[in-house]
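The data layer described in this paper is built around a simple, fixed record for each protein. We quote a single record here, exactly as it is kept in our systems:
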Amino acid sequence: MSHHVSRFLRDGGPRTMRRLAALRERSLASGQSSSAAERLRRVRDVVHDLAPQQEAHVTRGQVQSRVGRRLADAGLVEMVRTGELTELIPGVFRHAAYLPTYQLEDAVALWLSLDPHETAVDRSWRDRASATSIAVIGGGAALKHWELDRSAGSAVLYLPSSHPMVEPTENTTVQVRDVPIDDVRWTWNIPYLSVEATIVEYLANWGDIENTAELLVDAMWHYHPLDPAALRRNLHRLAAAEGADGREFWDPDELYDNLVAEAGGWPAQPNRSFTHYWSQFATPRAEAFKSMTSEDAPPGSDTHGSAEL
């Protein structure tokens, strides 16, 4: 210990020790800066680092893990006050740069609230390797995410088991259901019900083959590869579930044939990794849709390409 420091401690006594303890606590929380602007900047930097990886959402626990409880709480309050953040559910915030979509944002917020101190990146690494059912976003949120239907139904957060800390919101229901791993698709570290499973879920909820076929046409055009076997597999799962509930049995293979026929047939899929519109058009309906499109988007323009599917 230097001569100056030892004299400072000796002359100041208990009062000096209390001041040093306070300074030490403040330095741990604020990086040795007493500036309110600097403290807010540290919290904002953490939010700006995390939010793009989590569909513009961030949790209080995640920020606290980076900068400490006191600094995180003060910074988040200030960012809410200035309109930079909106608290969707207790402890989960959406950044103002994000365009609100009511079927989607609450579902993502609820998913994040399951592990509020863990980032979506860390959960993605863990859950992608899981051999058991995980929490998955479905319902209207999946339809919205896959841009298949912008108005049908509320969002659903499927949980493998009940969770005491997760409450449904006005726009999102919570259901206990095992979602097969092969029906989970990850986009920006968030797990969604796959396109094929989402289409069958829509059919189960609305019972409308014609509208479901329209969703299938949109999916055929926008996503590669769309898997006919996955669609058939989900129809079989739906039939088995309804049969187990004592409902009238129907033939899933016949329904598959009718659904694909209503959609105009299954198109030839291009041999490339990313595509927005199909390069080959095998059905009259696809040809009609092509004629309404001024020009095809270039390969790679679709952010929901096969890397995520």
User: Anything to note?
Assistant: The longest helix spans residues 3-30.
